[in-house]
Amino acid sequence: MPSAPVSTPPKGGAPRATGSPSQAPPVAHPWSAPILLGVLALAAVVGAAAYTDATEPLALSDPGPLVRWGLPPALVVAQAASVVTFGLLALAAFVVPERAHTNRRIDATRWAALTAFIWALASGVAALFTFADLAGLPLTDPHLLPQFGAYVFSLEATRILVISSVLAMVVAVWGALTRSRATMAWLFVFTLVGIVINALSSHTGGSASHEDVVNSMAFHLIGVSAWVGGLVGLVMLRRRLGRDLGVSVARYSTVALWAYAAVALSGMQQAILRVGSWAAMTSQYGLVVLAKVILLVLLGVLGWQQRRVVVARLERDPSDGRAFGRLAIVEIGLMAVATGFAVALSRSAPPIPDALPNPTVVLSLTSYPDPGPMSSIDWFTAWRINWLFLTIALLAMGLYAAGVIRLHRRGDSWPWSRTTLWMLGWLVWIYFTCGPAEIWGRVLFSVHMVMHMGIAMLLPLFLVPGAAITLAMRALPARHDKTWGWREVLLQVVHSRAMRVFANPVVAATLFFVSMAIFYWSPTFNLALTTHTGHLLMMGHFVLTGFLFVWVLIGTDPGPPKWSPLMLLVVLFATISFHAFFGVALTDTRDLLAGDFFTRINLPWGPDPLTDQHVAGMIAWGIGEAPTLTLAIVVAVQWIRRDKIETRRKDRQADRDGDAELTAYNDYLANLGAHDKEVDR
User: Which residue, 1, 9, 212, 490, is most buried by CB atoms nearer than 10 A?
Assistant: First the structure.
């Protein structure tokens, strides 16, 4: 009987744990899983591309068969490599346990660096092929490369691929050198950004659905990356995990459940937006979508099988990876075929066209039709669901409720007032992101300012007292195997050096109010009004800076040391003055901010843009003062409460030691007086 294989010892000197030969996975070599993923995905994309119109010659200017047939494989290689990079870095930073003589996370990161390099190379090739396809130039045309260099950042499709390629190269170089788990977490974030930005180049399904399709595709890409990448990474690391395979698979299984839900729901939304009707399901595009649905159902069944059988089997024997390996390879094969279909669909025209015929100026600039004049009743009855913002709110409310329930089940209490404020805060968020402020805020500066004040100043007054970080610290289990779960990540963030800088009240106030002025008096305001990415970044900036400012003033969560209430009031009153100055400046200015946007939309029913801008300044001045005054009152109340607590503490201390502190102080004064008398003599 042959001896059990032993992998190369790590630098620590001890061999890595391995299973017995009888427990070897069906695919033993660690690179067999990503190779299988790539080969099957390539086969699927070629077959689906041949079936659809993705590789048909263009009628006017054809770039040639090499570009037409080479672009889908380049895209699928880039996507597969990015997914494997994502999974390996996620395992390295958050899943894989370490023992005294293991360096599994370093192995995973080195492999991720290699797949990131493949991702960068494939994305670069795909960018060149995409430009050639759009320009109708074959690769042998001498004008191709000069034009590519001149216009690569002018086209959204090529710009996104180049940015993704650059991020992938950063991950490749940095990942080849790092040994820190914190750095691996940052590389994971870079990889996530490099994957999600590809959603911007997805089919829009009609301009009116552009933002919904992009947001849905972003969720879809995150879900697929976590699901497929995590599974491939586990197969690659199986031999190095040894008896830690069980806990790693169990952690992955929880993430995979969330990922499956994200993929299923986002895929359903995309199918509705792109296919449009049941009759369109019989088209070439619709049949490929149907094939993806069938694969998704099969993968769901296999995932349930993994949780029911494989995880239970690994709980009994953590190093028994045979069943896991067999099931994982089947799942990877189905995932690869689904990935190939997805890339082929991205190169095909959906039944609903990408652009609506004869769009209006408002629709072209904002991706939404002209809402028409606004009445008073619209403040209570008008709604337009933004599925991304609604999903964020529902997740935040659901996770908070789950944390409270977990505390109550183990006999711990949680103040009902905190829960109420947190839930009300997210209802405020839903109102300002799915209600009239969002609808008319896209075309009217005054309504936009109402949305800004609500998101940046009113919302944090509800969320910060909810103390979500404290709840998470108490509800989330701690890990003791040198990995980072959600609790460990939160601890790293709130006690990081960066947080000590940003949580400085002066810095937080500067970020909140000064950046607001910079935002409106710079081209970023126009980008936020005309681009989906700019709008999302604007909303994120409003929420984060507002939350941070309120958190450093009245927050009770763990974090950097708090300033004294007196200094906090000084900072707050200084910001009140600046906020008033901002409102007055906006009211008195004669220059129209984002003038190109407001001049071009030229609403026939709307007010004069400059007059509306002055109204926005008055709103910023008037509405913004009420939340600031509320903050001042809360800081003062906390000051009084803190003094009372400190007084009671000193009284208890005096009862225990016979008021030793006062006695020592009186003795000090007596000795000082005796010394002065000696000096006088």
Answer: 212
Q: What is the pLDDT of residue 602?
A: 84
pLDDT > 70: percent of the chain: 79
Its sign, for the CA torsion 476, 477, 478, 479, is: negative
pLDDT at 471 over 90: yes
The continuous run of DSSP H or E covering 270 comes out as: helix 245-275
Q: Quick one: pLDDT at residue 22?
A: 37
**Inter-residue contact 286 to 275 (CB < 8 Å):** yes
Asked if residue 14 lies in contact with residue 57, where contact means CB atoms within 8 angstroms, the answer is no
Could you give the angle at the alpha carbon of 375 between the alpha carbons of 369 and 379, nearest 5°? 85
Question: What is the per-residue pLDDT for 26?
Answer: 44
Q: Say which amino acid occupies 166.
A: V
Report the C-alpha gap between 116 and 54 in whole angstroms: 27
Can you list the alpha helix ranges (DSSP code H) found in 176-224?
181-196, 210-224
Q: Tell me how far the alpha carbon of residue 453 is from its chain's centroid.
A: 23
Short-list 389, 362, 394, 364, CA closest to 451: 389
559: closest CA among 486, 637, 633, 505?
A: 505
Indicate the residue type of 287. L
The type of residue at 440 is W
Residue 459 to residue 422: CA distance in whole angstroms: 10
Domain ranges of the chain: 35-346, 378-657
SS3 annotation, 526-561: HHHHHCHHHHHHHHHHHHHHHHHHHHHHHCCCCCCC
More confident residue, 348 or 428: 428
Residue range 197-221: mean pLDDT, rounded: 73
pLDDT, position 547: 94
Question: Helical H runs in 136-180?
Answer: 144-151, 156-175
What whole-number distance in Å separates Cα of residue 413 and Cα of residue 407?
6
Query: Six-digit token pair at 5?
Result: 């294989």
Mean pLDDT, the chain, as a whole number? Answer: 81
The position carrying tokens 């990408």 is: 354
pTM given for the model: 0.81
Of residues 56 and 570, the one with the higher pLDDT is: 570
Residue 620, classed as helix, strand or coil, is: helix
| Cα-Cα-Cα-Cα dihedral sign, residues 490, 306, 105, 218 | negative
* Chain-centroid distance, C-alpha 190: 11
**CA 176 to CA 172: how far, in whole Å?**
6
232 with 33: CB under 8 angstroms?
yes
Specify whether the backbone of 8 is left (phi greater than 0), alpha (psi in -120 to 50) or beta.
beta
Q: Please tell me the number of Cα atoms within 13 Å of 612 on its side-chain side.
A: 23
Report how far residue 587's alpha carbon sits from residue 356's, in angstroms, rounded to the nearest whole number: 38
Question: 299 pLDDT band (50/70/90 cuts)?
Answer: confident
Give the 3-state secondary structure of 357-384: CCCCHHHHHHCCCCCCCCCCCHHHHCCC
